[in-house]
Amino acid sequence: MKLVNINKSQYRSANNLVQIGLLATLAILSLIFGQLLIYFFGVKPLPDAESTGNFHLNLTGVILALMVCSLLVRNLRQKPKFYEVYYVWQLKQLQNKIFRKLKSIQQAAKDNNRDALLILCFYYQSLALVYNLDNNTLTMSNVNNELDKLQKSIDAAGFSIDVDEFTPEMLKDF
Q: What's CA 83's distance to the chain center, in Å?
């Protein structure tokens, strides 16, 4: 996966639109599906009675709404307008995979393993990209410090690292 420069305002706009749209769709469809299931399969409420026991139908309505939202996301991810949102989502998933193996990657980087140094370089640069897009300024200095330390390690080892060389398959070795 390559790191791509993303227009921050366009990304934020599209991301907000996707989040609000999915939340509204989920809420509305959950209500609609739940009410339809209760209408056709539910227990009719009795006067002065307590619960009707239709919780399972409401839960089924929420699950159906989640399935519809998943299909929407699956189809929208191919649209050019939502490219940035989907790209950042994929990048965050890849960061998660790297984070799970971070200790072993850092240990290999201490031993001047070029692939480990490359993975860490990609990881910290991608974190900086995502933190910038999400306005996460609190941890940005920490990421920049890690990048500086990493660059010193790369220089000391005599390597030339280009993050475009990174592939997710490199993680299999750690």
A: 13
